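ESCALATION

Customer reports they have been waiting on this structure for their group meeting. Please prioritize. Original submission:
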Amino acid sequence: MKILKKILSNYISIVFCFLFGISLSNEFDISALENCVKFDVKVDRKVYFGGEDLYLFFNIEIDDGFHIYSVHPEKSLSPTYVDIIDSVYFSDIGIINEPEALKKFDKNFNQDIYYHKENIQLVKNLKLSDSLENNNYKVNGVFEYYACDESMCIPRWDNFSFEFQVFDGEKRTDFELKPFPIEYDSNIPLTELETEINKGLFSFILFAIGMGFLALLTPCVFPMIPITVSYFTKEGEKKDNNPIFSASLYALGIIIIFTTLGLLLSFTLGASGAGDLAANPWINILIASLFIYLAFSLFGYYEIQTPSFLRQFSINQENRGGVLGILFMSLTFTLTSFTCTVAFVGALLATASQGAIFWPIIGMLSFSLAFASPFFLLALFPQYLSKLPKSGGWLNSVKVIMGFLEIAAAFKFISNVDLVWNWGIFDRSMVLLIWAIIFILMSLYLLGLIKMPFDSPIKKISFYRIIFCIIFLFVGIYLSTGLFNNKLHGLIESYLPPDKEEIWIEDLDVGYKVSKELNKPIFIDFTGYTCTNCRWMEINIFEEDEVKEIFENFVLVKLYTDGKEKNHKKNRQLEIERFGTAALPYYVILSTDDNVLGTFPGMDTNKDKFIDFLNNSRNKFED
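Update from on-call: job pushed to the front of the queue and completed.
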């Protein structure tokens, strides 16, 4: 009976204090109390197996002069509380853990109260249901607390939500609540992006432009060099051609299409939308067909003309056709470059997929401006070259050589289709054989042993023809040596289909099990079948003796993000949702208990930086 009276008395006191506070609202600023507490909610991991514990972190900022009550029901009249609305996903809603609370005697209630007046971290322990299927889950909840100053308190019910992903796998049981403060996984790629954003608009634009110029050094861009030169060589032969207009339209088309298409796909299909489109087998077939079509035009078998139904849209049919053709080349360039989304663009697209607009647009425009600028010159130069007097004979030979190079490039994209659809026809040996034959044919063409429709009779083989003939013949022979298990130069190998490697695990769940058995951290290589930059890293960095020696201390997991198997989509979602990027390649090192030890964003020609990343992550694991 005494306990009941005490509870009733306390309840009446709280109601009285609250009503008294409301009555004094003219003298006190209640809006200050409403905004004195800010918080964000994080989960300890983004990926779980059914039945595991999920730790929910509330990082709370409390303004000076304000406080909230303890979560402990026996230490507070109105304890801070977390209400999980979507509790169906959990088999147990655990308690809230808090750091040590402050204590003071409250004369109004004639008892000690416990409270927090500084920034704190609360942790809610939830146990996932064993029956959860592979999926992404969003959970809603309410954070209930009293916001107080020295004069009054007001109740607050703030809504929040958090997301996590469940995969198939055995429950990991060795996760324990660590002492305060607890650190949760940070979104490392976006942290760098946010750091640049916080420096201001001008600094961010300069950073994005710098990233665009650096991206020009990646192998993904190289196939578009002969394509651009050959296409605009043909453009320059048109009577009313304006070289500056054509080159400007090409560069501007790249900038606008790269930005618009990338962001549009991110808004609609998610952060990997652009990469998915570029890796799509039908898109690769389209690009390969286009290159072969352009090649035979350069050989002189036909002239490229825009279909009549498109030319009818304009009175000036010839000019309209040229504009459409150039913009189509800009689209081709964009799709080709999307096969290897660099780290900066990957972070921008991930940010855009989460609803941000301003910074992704500014970043993509600035990046593509730098990315497209050299191709303005590559489009401009051959058009003026075509207009030189007496350019017919030797320029026709240049066009034919460019045609051969376009056919070689086409087989790169055909091999992409083979990899995704698992034909097993255009493997490394087949593509190498085709390339070797193409370069030998180029050599024979320069000697006059192969004739094209518009070739002039060769009365004398010039010194320059002999030099280039020897070069192409040497390249053809060199490529053919790769058919006998000889590793070629890393740049060439990066364009070839990858060989299957037995030491790499292609299932992360298996990687977790092996990691625990061997007590080794997990090295994850997020890669793609169609990713040229990924092949470059695997050939030029992974094959270094020093790197191979360090790799022995890791469980090596290779996760493909393109292809038709189910786990490829799961791998892609894991990279985007947990690490905040769609970049390829992307490297992550995890501990045996799934904590992130380090990340390495994308292709880097500096071997030492990659080795430092491996060693630093390994040292963290051993500590």
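Sent to customer with the following note: The chain has 21 helices and 15 strands.
Escalation resolved.
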